[in-house]
Design goal:
The structure is a homodimer. Chain A contains 10 helices and no strands. The first copy, chain A, folds into 2 domains: about 60 residues, Arc Repressor Mutant, subunit A; about 150 residues, Tetracycline Repressor, domain 2 (Orthogonal Bundle), CATH 1.10.357.10. Chain A is mainly α. In chain A, about 40% of the residues are buried. Chain A is about 65% helix and about 0% strand. Chain A binds a DNA duplex (30 and 30 nucleotides) through helix 2.
DNA sequence: CGGCTATCTAAACGGTGCTCAGATCGCAGT
DNA sequence: ACTGCGATCTGAGCACCGTTTAGATAGCCG
């Protein structure tokens, strides 16, 4: 770690000298934060250590983030953007709405696997203090709206019973969040290996189960 | 706060003097921790503050808990005991296995509402460092075994298709954990009030939806 | 070239987890 | 009854944390 950074805002003759004005501190702090979360978990993330990691004094981050929570908030917003674009692509590429619900579940989990550092921060809203940083809740609303529209489409297809879509929405939403939480926290991983599977395969089977239940003829 | 404690191990003539040997420090630290989590969230929980709250020096807790994580681990184990007994009673009082699955979901959420401080700690396994405190994972396994046996019973009743019960188990497990996470973290509460409902009512409807899907005739 | 502003440094404050030498007390053994 | 021992608690100390502040530095605009 502690990679010396020499990115200047303009061309400089001396490539070894660390510039007084860093030039990309904000982005590098976020990147270093994600690296640190991936390597040692969210508990190890401190602004001081991040500053040291990037090669800057302990007070420097406060010119880019109001406080620790603001750094987390930036990571969460970034993660929700990535998540939404992935979910949106999956939704667009699905044949029908019920298949889309299955694929959304799988995509949510695979996003968590591919961007586990982002996800670990996203799952801990108290770190971002969403009450103080409302852009966090706004970013989190987009994936839910996507899910909601998919549930509505599944109702139009007749798979989901007509009426209030919210119970089904909350069911799939909670399922996705819960599975990913249990995955990243350990228990699902442990149980899957004990069962001779992988969490990746398991969410696929869970999602197929949900799809099969939705596709059963209505009584 | 800062309730002066005068519990002596034996009778004492001076009721106002705080005893040198506290007598019930361990239990009181746990109780104060739960109070503090309920009042200010898990982020506010520190051993120093707990010690001050109970009226004891900052080093005293370390004679009862190896470290901060051990305190959290004790809370988690306690919580899982409470949760299991509640779930077990609900399971025993249900007419059939599918109804039991619905009631288990509702009971899980209502436990989270009634013991939110316990649940907030239980949902953050990194606080208890379950790798170092294996009794935590052992305590967490009992509710899952209960769920598993209920899913198996539902298979015997014909509602759940025969075969591997694990996908259905993971579905309900994740659903319960996810809903409670989203509830305690805020977004479900916000969405429900925006919808004119309560999270309590919503989990009932979600659980009924799951039950209805399971009861649909198999294709 | 001069000044303005954003950026960064370094020091400081209070709080945290955790350790440790020493004080204190209950209790078991004689 | 007394003595010693072990469990418990104190209080000081270390390293780290978030955050603030005064002051140094450098890019940029006039």
């Amino acid at each position: 770690m502690r990679q010396g950074v020499d990115q200047h805002t303009d061309s400089d003759t001396d490539p070894n000298a660390r510039p007084y004005h860093h030039g990309a501190l904000r982005a590098q702090l976020i990147a270093a934060g994600l690296d640190l979360v991936a390597a040692e978990g969210v508990g190890a993330l401190s602004l001081r250590r991040l500053a040291w990691e990037v090669g800057v004094s302990s007070g420097a981050p406060y010119h880019h983030f109001a406080d620790r929570a603001a750094l987390f908030a930036a990571i969460v917003v970034d993660g929700h953007d990535l998540l939404f674009s992935r979910l949106d692509a999956v939704r667009a590429g699905s044949s029908d709405a019920v298949a889309a619900l299955r694929e959304l579940l799988v995509a949510y989990a695979s996003f968590a696997a591919d961007h586990s550092a982002h996800m670990r921060v996203m799952l801990r809203p108290e770190l971002a203090e969403s009450a103080v940083h409302p852009e966090v809740t706004a970013a989190g609303a987009r994936p839910i709206e996507l899910l909601r529209s998919t549930v509505l489409a599944a109702q139009d297809e007749g798979a989901v019973p007509p009426g209030d879509p919210e119970p089904v929405l909350h069911m799939i939403w909670s399922l996705a969040v819960g599975y990913v939480t249990l995955w990243l926290d350990g228990p699902v991983e442990a149980r899957c290996t004990a069962l001779g599977t992988t969490p990746d395969e398991m969410i696929r089977r869970v999602a197929s189960t949900v799809e099969a239940l939705l596709r059963r003829p209505r009584a």
